Amino acid sequence: MTDSLGLLGVDQAELDSCVACGLCLPHCPTYRVTGADTHSPRGRIALMRVVDEGIAPLSDEIVESFDSCIQCRACETACPGDVPFGHLLEATKEFVETTQRRAPWWLKLGLRGLTRPRLLRFVSSSLAVAQRLRLVPSRRMGIPERLPVRRRALRPTGDDVWLFTGCVMDAWQRDIHLATQEVIEATGTTVRPTGSAAPCCGALHTHAGLGNDARKLAARAISALDGNNAILVNSAGCGAALKDYGRLLDSDEARSFSARVFDIHEWLAAHIDELAKTAAESQIAGRVAIQDPCHLRHVQGSHTAVRRVLQPFVEELVELDDEGMCCGAGGAYSLVHRQLALDVRARKSEAVNRSGADLVVSANPGCSMHLEAAGLTVRHPVELIAEALRTR
Ligand code: SF4
Ligand code: SF4
Fold first, then answer.
1. Which ligand is nearest to the CA of 41?
2. Dihedral sign of CA atoms 173, 331, 231, 196 in order
3. CATH assignment of the domain containing 53
4. Which of 87, 153, 287, 292 is buried most, with the most CB atoms less than 10 Å from its CB?
5. In angstroms, rounded to a whole number, what is the distance separating the alpha carbons of residues 214 and 230?
C-alpha cells in the first residue's frame, strides 16, 4: 500500500525509513572508491528527500549523485531498517527522466535495439566481423573482444520449463544458454527457450529511468510466457527483473508470473541429486572463485544455491574476501560511468588475485564481460557443470 507521495512520486514512509545511521556506507562500492557522501546510499536518500519536499531543485550535482549509483543494492542487504533503496532510486530515476530527459540518446537507441532480436543479432554479427578485421576498439567500447559471428540454434525439446534467453546474452553468449539447456535436460526435464517471444526483461530500461518501456516489456513477457510452468533464468539481472514484475505492474497476473520465475541455480539445487550421481568422477580441476552478481546476492538472495550446485562438480571452490562487493558492471553503467566502473572493478580484480583462483564463475553476463575485460578468465557456473557432465 503506497503512503503519501511527494514530488518524486516515491512512498514517503519508505523514504523516511532511512535514519542516516551510515551502516550501509562500507558496503557501497561508489562510496568506497570516492569517499563522498553524495556517492553513498545515505547521501542519495538525503538528496531524494530535499527534492521530494521541494526544498532543492533537481540540479546537475543532484542528478549526478543518483546517476552514479550502480544500483547494486548492497546497501539493502546491509541496512538494519530494510530501507528499499533500489525501488526508491528506480522511482527517482524515472522522475528525473520524465522531467528532464537526461539519458543519453545513444543509450536510449541501444536500449530500443535490445527489444528487436533480429536487429540485435545482425548488429552483433556485423560488429563481430568488424572485430576480426580489427576495425573495432572493443576495449574502449566496453564490449567483449571476440563476439560470435554465428550462433548455434537453441531448439525446444518440450514444455516442462521455459528457459529465458533475453537480449544481449542471447546475441553474445548463446553458448551459455546451450550449456544451460544441456544441464536442465540432464535432470530429465524438457526445455522451451523463450527466444523472440520475450526479447528483453527490461532491467536496463528500469535502471535508466525508462519505466514505461520497462512496463511494456514486462507486459509483453507475461502474455508470451503463459501457462504454469517454471521460467528459469541464467542471468542474475534478468531474473531479478522478472521476479519484480509483480511490483512493477502491481497486478495479480504479474505477481503469479513472478512466482514462476527461478534463478537457474535455485532450480538446479532442487534437482542436484539427479545431476550429482557421477560428479565425483567428473570434477573440474583447479581453484574456482565465485563472484556473486549483486542481483543474485542482494536482490534475489540466491547466491548460496550457486555454491550448492557447483560443489559436486568443482575440485576447489574459493570465496572472495570482499563480502560480495559489486564488480562495477551495473548493466550499462560501465559504459556511462567508465572511470567509476573501472575503479570499482580494480577492487574486485584485487580480491580475485588474492584468492589465487585459476578462474572465476559469474552468473551474470554484464559482470562476466566486465571482469573479462580486466583480463580475468570468467565462466558461467552452468558451463562448468555442463563440461563436467560431458566427461561422465
Ligand atoms: S539506508 Fe539503512 S543503513 Fe543506510 S543510512 Fe539509511 S537506515 Fe542506515
Ligand atoms: S545501490 Fe549500490 S551503489 Fe547504489 S547506493 Fe546502494 S550500495 Fe551504493
1. 2
2. negative
3. 1.10.1060.10
4. 292
5. 22
Report the nearest-CA residue for atom 8 of ligand 1. 21
CA of 39 to the centre of ligand 2 (A): 8
The pLDDT > 70 percentage for the chain reads 97
Answer yes or no: is pLDDT of 1 > 50: no
Query: Cell numbers 552478481 label which residue?
Result: 293
Query: If we measure between CA atoms, which residue out of 347, 349, 350 comes closest to residue 373?
Result: 349
Cα–Cα distance measured from residue 28 to residue 42, given in angstroms and rounded to the nearest whole number = 10
Average pLDDT over residues 251-261: 98
Q: How far is the CA of 17 from the centre of ligand 1 (A)?
A: 8
Residue 153 per-residue DSSP state: P
Q: For the CA atoms of 88, 91, 95, 101, what is the dihedral angle to 10 degrees?
A: 110
Q: Closest ligand 1 atom, CA of 42?
A: 5
- Indicate if 338 and 217 belong to the same structural domain: no
Expressed in angstroms and rounded, the spacing between residue 86 Cα and the centre of ligand 2 is 8
Task: Please identify, by atom number, the ligand 2 atom nearest to the C-alpha of residue 86.
Answer: 1
pLDDT surpassing 50 at residue 92: yes
> How many folded domains does the chain comprise?
3
Is-above-0.90 flag for pTM? Answer: yes
| Distance in angstroms (rounded) separating the CA atoms of residues 210 and 190 | 35
Same domain as 152, residue 125: yes
Q: What pLDDT does 277 receive?
A: 67
Residues 40 and 133 in one domain: no
Q: What is the mean pLDDT of residues 267-271?
A: 96
Do both 120 and 257 map to the same domain?
yes
Q: Find out whether 193 and 156 touch, Cβ atoms under 8 Å.
A: yes
Nearest-CA residue for ligand 2 atom 2 is: 72
